[in-house]
Amino acid sequence: MTQTRTYLDYNATAPLRPDARTAMIAALDLKGNASSVHAEGREARQVIEAARVAVAQLVGARAADVVFTSGATEANAWVAAGGWRRIYLSGLEHDSVRAPAAASGAEIVQLPVKSEGVIDVAAVAALLADAQPLADGRALMCVQAANNETGVIQPVAELAALARAYGIAVQSDAVQAAGRIALDCAVLGIDFLSISAHKIGGPKGMGALVLRDGAALKPLVRGGGQERGRRGGTENVAAIAGFGAAARAALNDLELQSAIAARRDGLASALRAQTPELVVIGAGADRLANTLCVALPGHAAETLVIRLDLAGVAISAGSACSSGKVGVSATLAAMKLPDEIAKGAVRLSLGSDTTDDDIRRAVNAWRDSTVGARRAA
Ligand code: PMP
How many domains is the chain partitioned into structurally? Predict the structure, then answer.
């Protein structure tokens, strides 16, 4: 008998949406190279440009400013390689932002984080006022739109306004925010925004960097002249088509977020009823509707993940969310959580097709893996 599985790991990756699958299968049979002038080439080009419009709509950008990449990791690496002299960022950033920034040779300045997992705007204002002006060269500030582990939403527009006053360019990694909160690049006042197709129900290995009109960034992948000279390489038409279809569907998901939040909050209450010592990480901050990061002091995150998996429920360890490494994640370290909580942090993340039955199964599995396991011991 096959076990019914409950998937609560949408922040790691979301299942492929039916619309995305249909669009990808149709695009696989497109013969032409989108750079060719003949009818076959033009047909592939049309699919790419329609997807570009859909992705632009999801993030409130001009289609011409969207450049397709192999994923958000490439988009983030591209921005980091922009020849910056100084990069401001926090420990909340995804490894794909922090690692290339660290390797870029730029001076790294840490942005202060409050205990709820939000960047401290007032402290950043003071930090920028005190910073040594750069004699030459450019500075960048990286502010994720929402955190992959806690779901905490960052004050991107406020920080971008501060940065702009000092001539600092701003990047926002909006991978987790896309389709979950309304995004508008112009309102946010940012120069660069990265997104990933597979987090919104598109294919893995596809993403985009949105560049503000006029934002100067040399190509990372050169040659071929594709993407108007900004990213070389024959386009992955099927993946781009899937990304476009997923973006269209994700835009409609925005109105489902309050129902998803209700389901997530119901899940949190039910878990607390089983285990009253439950700590909800980031509970005091604005969070994505779908994300629940919790810890049970005294329970190792990895053990909980394995027990829930055996009980048919897929979740992930907050301590290892982004890296697969055991230890405290940079996000939880930046929040300065006590070790006991950070090492116990697990993330349950819902999608638009998560059902009440999924929640019920997760609660039962939680009970069996915690209270039940204690009784059995
Ligand atoms: N940024 C964040 C916040 C993420 O959660 C992820 C995926 N874990 C990435 C960037 C990397 O995206 P991709 O998988 O498309 O390379």
Answer: 2
Categorise residue 336: left if φ over 0, alpha if ψ from -120 to 50, beta otherwise. Answer: left
Instruction: Determine contact, residues 154/176, Cβ cutoff 8 Å.
Output: no
Enter the pTM of the model: 0.96
Give exposure, 211-235, as e/b (b: 16+ Cβ within 10 Å): bbeebebebbbeeeebbeebbeeeb
CA of 71 relative to ligand 1 center, distance in Å: 8
Residues tagged active-site: 321
291 lines ligand 1 (CB under 6 A): no
Rounded mean pLDDT, 125-135? 92
Report the separation in Å between the CA atom of 279 and the middle of ligand 1, taken as the mean of its atom positions.
26
Residue 1 counted as domain residue: no
- Ligand 1 closest atom vs CA 12: 8
**Is residue 244 predicted with pLDDT exceeding 50?**
yes
Are residues 73 and 186 part of one domain? yes
Predicted pLDDT at 326: 56
φ, ψ for residue 20 (rounded to 5)?
Answer: -70, -40
CATH assignment of the domain containing 332: 3.90.1150.10
- Whether 6 contacts 362, CB under 8 Å: yes
Where are any strands of DSSP class E within the chain? 6-7, 66-69, 84-89, 107-110, 138-142, 169-173, 192-196, 207-211, 279-280, 291-295, 313-314, 316-317, 345-349
Nearest residue by C-alpha to atom 16 in ligand 1: 73
Give dist(CA 174, CA 143) in Å, integer.
9
66, 208: one domain: yes
Per DSSP, what are the bridge partners of residue 7?
314
- Ligand 1 pocket, residue 162 CB under 6 Å: no
Q: Both 232 and 280 in a single domain? A: no
